[in-house]
Amino acid sequence: MTIQKNWATRLLGIAFLWQAATSLISNAVFADPLMAEGNMAQTMLNLAANAGHVHIAVLMETMTAVGIILLGTMLYHFLKSTNEPIARFGFAMYVFEAVVLFAKQILLLMVFKTGQMYMATGGAELLPLGEVFGFAKTYAGQLNMLIFGLGAIAFYSLLVKSRIIPRWMSIYGLATVPLILIFVPLMNYGVEVPFWVLAPYVPFEFVTGTVILVRGIKRTIL
Predict the structure, then answer these.
(1) What angle do CA 196, 137, 152 make, to 5 degrees?
(2) What Cα–Cα distance (Å) separates residue 80 from each residue in 3, 47, 89, 158?
(3) Distance separating alpha carbons of residues 199 and 176, to the nearest angstrom
(4) Which of 27, 109, 110, 121 reaches 20 to 30 Å from 140, CA-CA?
(5) What residues are paired with 218 via a beta bridge?
(6) By 3-state DSSP, what share of the chain in percent is helix, strand and coil, each rounded to 5?
């Protein structure tokens, strides 16, 4: 084993940080505060009154989708020699996740546009349309988390086996990603999940990306 630190390892580290940071900023700062749980009329009005927030959220999540594809590409590059079928599956899931995430942003814009019309006219007939778009957006979010979890488990299991990053980090990621896979979709069905249940996974991508950027990765020299 020797330490490899070049443009490819830097790109892997950047991809981890890029998609984690843009997703966190989009949801925590711009999108989620506008959602009035169980009140679509208020959600539509909130979105319509905060066009700047909506467009920034969509831009950030679109950047997240690009980051996910980049991360999947780089993980496949480094892990295909460990087990190519599993790496290929992980890559396919990451691309699928990015596509669903982009579709979710289109649905958010549809709720936003419906909200603008509702704000302008007060037409009660627009509420069912907003509900449909909102339900589809929520479902896309649930599907997104399911696909992410499957892809992450595939890649993280290969990280454990390959040992290209410290093994404890790979095991930590593999152990905590099921929390996201299971509990985030449950939250979308109205189940109250305390943040501390999900918190263990949150630092993984940030720490992993930083470690890769600073230290590089370990590779076997044949």
Answers:
(1) 50
(2) 18, 43, 10, 9
(3) 9
(4) 121
(5) 3
(6) 85, 5, 15
